[in-house]
Design brief:
The protein is of the alpha/beta class. Helices cover 29% and strands 20% of the residues. It has a domain at 85-235: OB fold (Dihydrolipoamide Acetyltransferase, E2P).
Length: 238
């Protein structure tokens, strides 16, 4: 038998192997497009693009601020109309002082300071080491029987998480009668209510409404030259 030259045999084998490789490797079809990425579909990348809005502009922040101020003013105007409809007169603490009372009070304070620092002073813990209520019971008679609204801080006679309060003092500054001397009697209002209320804090800033009387009330905390029959109470918003 005639033998096939080894060179030819090797070439045939190489061609066969090449043909097998082409048949097993799929060719990319010109008619089948490659799958598109999400970026290609949307035309945008995942990150910020030029022209995208980032945060608020100064004009937008100012517009939001102006809108908030306008809303608060409208709410305040609505409350004032409600107060007027209830026939209530809004007053301040200075309105409780009769004419010339501030001058009289200033002289009383000066005399108190001269007594404290003019002598040997007061020993801590002695009988004289107490908070003294300085002032008078002089009142504004025109306020007697008037329906008023006044802001202040509450000083309850009893306090607890579930305490139902029917009487408390209203004072013009925080800590009065507890951590600092009581204000004058005519700067202290004794408030009473037939419907018990619950105070969340010992000293709470509130608006009170009710019928004011030039009637004296004495208590262990402080004496008051005015009393008020409470008809409405609400939190004071700063």
């Amino acid at each position: 038998m005639k033998q096939i030259p080894s060179l030819l045999s090797a070439a045939a084998i190489a061609a066969l192997i090449a043909a097998c490789g082409q048949s097993t490797a799929p060719e990319a079809s010109a008619e089948t497009p490659a799958p598109e990425s999400s970026q290609a579909k949307t035309g945008k990348s995942d990150g910020p693009q030029v022209g995208d809005k980032i945060g608020e502009s100064d004009a937008e922040r100012q517009a939001a601020k102006d809108a908030s101020i306008a809303a608060k003013a409208a709410e305040q105007a609505r409350k004032q109309e409600e107060i007027k409809a209830r026939g209530v007169t809004e007053i301040g603490w200075e309105d409780l002082m009769p004419e010339g009372e501030e001058e009289r009070l200033a002289k009383m304070y000066q005399s108190q300071m001269a007594m404290l620092y003019g002598g040997g002073g007061i020993a801590e813990g002695s009988a004289a080491d107490t908070m003294v209520q300085i002032g008078t019971f002089n009142t504004v008679k025109e306020l007697d029987g008037k329906k008023v609204r006044i802001p202040g801080y509450t000083v309850p006679f009893e306090y607890g998480s579930k305490a139902q309060i029917t009487q408390f003092l209203l004072v013009p500054y925080f800590g009065a009668c507890i951590h600092s001397p009581p204000p004058p009697p005519n700067q202290t209002v004794f408030v009473s209510t037939t419907d018990p209320i619950q105070l969340k804090d010992l000293a709470q800033a509130v608006w009170v409404e009710g019928i004011l009387h030039t009637q004296t009330q004495e208590s262990d905390l402080a004496d008051a030259a005015y009393t008020l029959e409470l008809t409405h109470i609400e939190k004071y918003e700063y």
